Amino acid sequence: MEVRRVNYKEINPGVLAYLGDAVYELEIRKFLIDAGNKKVSDMDKKAISYVSAISQSKILDDLIDKNVLTEEELNCVTRARNYTPHSKPRHVDIKTYKKATALEALFGMLYIYNKERINVIMEEIKGE
Known about the structure:
Elements: H1 13-34, H2 40-51, H3 53-65, H4 71-82, H5 94-113, H6 115-126
Helix pairs in contact: 1-2, 1-5, 2-3, 3-5, 4-5, 5-6
């Protein structure tokens, strides 16, 4: 039986962000554990500097400014940023929220299509 590979453009950006949120959080948790942080409370505090909407928005801007993303990845980001969410952000403005959602959608797309690329982007995020 042949498995049909769906083009990421056919997947709702909200769905990509839903998946990418989990993938990104897991990558950050792995990074913090690998960095030698042993107290969960300390890791939770440090994780906020990576997973809050404000942090994700800044990280996306940095990735774009450094020309880390491929054309296809930028297309995914743009598509997700233009997506109209069904919920409203509570603690940030809509522009920040949409950029954070775009970073999550990028991780969702990469999880489905190019898991190796996640490592490259995470190295950039970690500053290595």
